[in-house]
Automatic annotation (TrEMBL), chain A:
PANTHER family, alphabetized: ABC TRANSPORTER PERMEASE PROTEIN YPHD-RELATED, ABC TRANSPORTER PERMEASE PROTEIN YPHD-RELATED-RELATED
Stated name of the protein: Sugar ABC transporter permease
Pfam families: BPD_transp_2
InterPro entries the record matches: ABC_transp_permease
Source species: Pseudaminobacter soli (ex Li et al. 2025)
CDD domains: TM_PBP1_transp_AraH_like
Record's keyword terms, sorted: Cell inner membrane, Cell membrane, Membrane, Transmembrane, Transmembrane helix, Transport
Cellular localization per UniProt: Cell membrane
Residues that span the membrane, as ranges: 12-34, 71-89, 95-118, 125-145, 165-187, 217-237, 244-263, 269-289, 301-323
The organism's place on the tree of life at top rank: Bacteria
TrEMBL record, chain B:
Transmembrane is among the record's keywords: yes
Organism from which the protein derives: Pseudaminobacter soli
Membrane topology: Multi-pass membrane protein
Annotated CDD domains: TM_PBP1_transp_AraH_like
Record-given protein name: Sugar ABC transporter permease
Top-level taxonomic group: Bacteria
Keyword Methyltransferase recorded: no
Subcellular location: Cell membrane
InterPro entries per UniProt: ABC_transp_permease
GO molecular function terms listed in the Swiss-Prot or TrEMBL record: transmembrane transporter activity
Membrane-crossing segments per the record: 33-52, 64-97, 109-129, 150-168, 188-211, 240-259, 271-289, 296-316, 322-340
Amino acid sequence: MRKTGGQLAMLVVINGVLLVAGALISGGSFLSIFNLQSMASQVPEIGLLAIGVMLAMCAGNGGIDLSGIALANLSGVLSAVIVSSFLSATDSGTAFSLVFIAGAILTGFTGGLINGLLISRLNITPILCTLGTQMAFMGLAVVVSGGKAVTVGSPELLSSLGNDMLFEVPFSFLVFMVVAAVVAAVLKFTPYGLWLMLIGTNPKAAVYAGFPRNWVLIATYALSGTLSGLAGVIIAARNVNVKFDYGSSYLLIAILIAVMAGVKPEGGYGRVICVVLSAIALQLMSSLLNFGGLSNFVRDFAWGLLLLTFLAVGRYDIAGFLLPGRHLQTPSVPVPQAPK
Amino acid sequence: MSASRTEDLHGAAAPARAPFSLGELVRRRPESITFALLVAICVIVAIANPAFLQPSTLIDIGRASVVMGLFALGVFVILAAGGIDVSFTAIAAFAMYSMTVLVQSYLPGLPIVVIILMATLGGALLGIINGLLVHHLKVPSLIVTIGTQYLFRGFLLSFIGTVWIMSLPPQMGAFGRMPLVQFESANGALITLPFYFLVLPVAAFVTWWILNRTLMGRAIFAVGGNADIASRLGYSLRTVHVFLFGYAGALAGLAGIIHVCANRQANPFDLVGTEISVIAAVVLGGARITGGTGTVLGTLLGVLLIVVLNSVLVLVGIPSTWQRLVVGSFILLAAAFFVTRQRKK
């Protein structure tokens, strides 16, 4: 746990540097309230997915959730198709929104539960399982929508979730913060959180210690799925349409955020606050690249490079090297393991 | 093809032991399930729509399996060593597009053999980058290769070009059209099995030879079984990782250039996005995703299964929108099936 502070401090510094750099490059307009709001409203969807990836990674044993964005899209598409078959978005906006939100979150939860059951009960490797469900979820969304975009429209409640501000802060960003705080509290103060981290650290010891391994795995993937469902709601709220292939690069970005946040890919360690900060840092960087007028492809290139850089940082403890005073810690002994 | 012949012999020998047990056969040769599934699907489709058995359909399937088969062989080798690779499509796109641009603008007279060799070599170099990163970063290869996938593709699209090249250099087009077998079908249309089809059996044989007849093959399966023990036995993990990813990269580069020649156009946005079906094919072929198992024959059967699935859904009247759902369910079913079989042993 000693490493925690370093990672947190580094992310705070990165965020600060990015804000200052943005202000300098753009001559202050980067820090305008409008730009800050627009950036903040783009964080939640990807941030929620990243928290899901973090949870799955913490579970260890090659744990990863690749189905996040597919499940988010499926939640939006399925819920939109079902709900709009008996409710009209224009006539009964609030009712439509409530049922839509409930439907999407339920879909996400069910999808996550399926992942969890397949992984814990059938012992399918998480990579393979979530690759399969990713394809199946996306396929189901294609089947349900016929491959076309499904219009959600902008019913009252939903559009205010996507577009309104509360005290000048986007509503969706507040929802994201609350959800992140809840997940963080669950990880910190409940036995579940402890079990999750310990199972990730040493699955064998955890089983012998009598932890309910299967339940923890199921709960983890179900929680990750629920977060995907919520991301689906926010995607639908911010865009008028939902489509099966929205956000095709979110898979990489979610993993990138988790790795930047210092989540260990081999399991056992991750903090929600770091994930939130790293999601914000990534959004700042993305907006900076936009200000620089660079194409999406350059951004893809930069994300790939960034991911590898942060993997190297995690491996060689460059953070400790750059921040003197942290040298004293004995670096954790790298556990040799097969690449998964 | 001697690879499959030898493996067939083994397959035939297994059930000869008394008492005969289907479960034993499946455990020893998981690809027999793949084969049975493939035959079942073909029979069902042939009954539902006899058009399936036309030579033109079969040749189409053969043609479509070349690029995917080459990818799958690379993925299989990596999977056998317990890793996973999702960057191979980006490597293929990178190799094919930059090679086409190079030939078109700078070296128009380059013979096709050199083009293919250079693409293969370029793919191998990118693969070696993967291997070094996987080895030195000590993180799951999935995460590393997701990173390099974006890196390679982003580099290609931002610095090399995004223009769809419709008219290939003549020697590449000619290679794509070169016939291996050519005959006239009943309705008078000319059906061609292209020459490049031969690349797949050759690559399959080489892969089989490396895995079963060389020390490197031993090392790959040993690392896939248990990397720690393999390294204590004296296998150099670094060499194995570099070789694995280099070999997979070379196959991807080769697949990329064949893809261009076969389609007679170079689209830099092509290929990326097909990784999952390739991995699905390898897993359906009986290779365990945790490494240490699998056969070349199984991999080829898995590829055939996916290609057939992709091309027959429409023939039997299932809308093409169902394709992803069907393939995804197949992955999960196969994974669940193989895992339960393993546990019973």
